[in-house]
Amino acid sequence: MIAAAAAAFLGISVGLYMFNKPHEDVASAEADYSMSVDELFAAFSTDEATANEKYLNKIIEIEGVLGEKSDSPDGITAILSASGEMFGVSCAFVGEDASALNEVAVGSAVRIQGICTGYLTDVNLTRCVLK
């Protein structure tokens, strides 16, 4: 009975710690990888499994041209199109970072840093910031 109570307490403690753990500050963090939109998109469209192993949950800094911006439930989503491709990289901005994106005109060259969350027609970056 004591062992079960101790295990439950430990489980609840770890769960609360993980739930309340602060997010990594993407703006001040060093990027794990830095590349162009074309390079990142090509890596995922060529071999998604290998790209997932290398880039998933890593901080990526990309350079490209802002193709479009659209409002999302949490902020703004920016799309940077890969050259000669219909798709590219989708970057989700929230809070003050979304406000900063409003100042950037479509067609402008941008450098964006965010956390790679995978590939679904576009490569997806979350918690993005302008660099």
List the helices and strands and how they pair.
Elements lengths: L1 H19 L12 E4 H10 L1 H8 L3 E13 L3 E7 L6 E7 H8 L6 E12 L1 E9 L1
Helix pairs in contact: 2-3
Number of helices: 4
The H/E string reads: HEHHEEEHEE
Mean pLDDT: 89
Estimate what percentage of residues fall within beta strands.
35-45%
Largest sheet: 5 strands, mixed, barrel
Structural class: alpha/beta
Main-sheet strand order equals: 2-3-4-6-5
Poorly predicted parts: none
Total strand segments:
6
Shape: elongated
Rounded Rg: 18 Å
Helix content: 25-40%
Span between termini: 54 Å
Verbal overview:
Helix content is 34%, strand content 40%. It contains four helices and six strands, in the order H-E-H-H-E-E-E-H-E-E. Strands 2-3-4-6-5 form a five-stranded mixed beta barrel.
What's the quick description here?
The protein is an alpha/beta fold. It has four helices and six strands, in the order αβααβββαββ. It is 34% helix and 40% strand.
Keywords:
single chain, 131 residues, alpha/beta, five-stranded mixed beta barrel, 40% strand
